[in-house]
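re: ur question from yesterday

yeah so i grabbed the chain u mentioned. its 176 aa long if i counted rite. heres the sequnce exactly as i have it in my notes:
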Amino acid sequence: MPRPNVLMAGLLAFATPALALDMPARKAGLWEIKTEFVGRNLPARSMRECIDAATDKLMSSNFSGPGQEACSKRDVQNTGGTITVDSVCKFGEATTTSHAVVSGDFNSAYTIEVTSTREGGRPLPGVAAGAATHMKMAATWIGPCAAGQRPGDMIMSNGMTMNILDLQKMRGLQQR
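ran it thru and got these structure tokens back, copy pasting raw so excuse formatting
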């Protein structure tokens, strides 16, 4: 059985093409992000991210880089501070159709709700073929990063910490 964080990361990879856009910059400091898959037999997860302007931009670009090229549709509307994104993206044999709504204040708290369906490709654990997946993310600014944390640190609910800058360095080494 896959570890919960690995499973969540896999599901997020298919749910987040809808978020492949330039999100407003978040306030620097420590953010807590709670993710819940509605109607799925998956526990809610939370993580904390220590960011500064550079690492926030990097984290945002990780969702908007190569993934954008795989999207045949990407309609973005920003109405009164609420961002709505409708997208159709193909990764390998799977096509994901998503509708996302992003609202809130990127200085204190925001939410992201994504409804997506996935057709084709290998089945995802716990998701029936063609079934809609509904993901809710709630982010809250906690305050300054804690002593010993550095920008880019992502602290998972199980205590595991990884840093986006270190992951970028490893990615660069793998592409050589």
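noticed a couple things. Residues 81 and 103 are 7 Å apart (CA to CA). also The chain has a mean pLDDT of 81.
anyway ttyl
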